[in-house]
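Case study: Glutathione S-transferase.
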Amino acid sequence: MARYRLHCIGASGNSYKLALYLNCAGLDWEPVGVDFAGGVTRDAVWRANKNAMGEVPVLEVDGQLMSQSGAILIWLAETTGKFAPGADQRYEALRWIMFDNHKFTNNHAMHRFQRSFMPAPVHPAILSFLRARTEASFAIVDKHLADRAFMLGDKPTIVDFSLAGYVYYPKQETGFDIAKDFPAIDAWRERLAALPGWKPPYELMPVGSDLRLTMLPPA
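Here is what the predicted structure looks like once written out:
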């Protein structure tokens, strides 16, 4: 059994943040599938044994269970030294990880889920609201990346893995053409994709419920 066991599903961008980090860091890890579509994360026993917050990802390591991707990325950087921000970058790293969790990833993830994985079409006003919020947060990151290779400078850190959670899912699924509308983010995506160990989400986490099959409405 691998030392790091990531309880996840392929469609979870928050899980992908950790899977991508673990793979690019060359750590001994394996994905463990979760039947998200079957409701396991709402099950009282699962919550008692895995994560009281009822979410994936959950990282299992040395008998310890951890949740919340941002907190886990910080812990991994501190315990492995891989992709760790410099001591003088700690505040900046925390600032961007919080921004990512609150806005960049959050808005994008909600728009994608409402657009592609609901059993029935949602009201257009909901998608319009979420799209506007996503575009606003993307514009901030696009401007930030216009004159730097990675979020904190010339080397990738956990901040880049945090923001990478949902930017590699297909545009048919997310509804966003990043290459066309956010060129600096797209160039940054390409730099991350050149790292040894990079793989797209569904390839890196071929486990758990496949929301593409179980939750998309019929054509």
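For the exam, be able to explain this: The CA atoms of residues 10 and 175 lie 18 Å apart.
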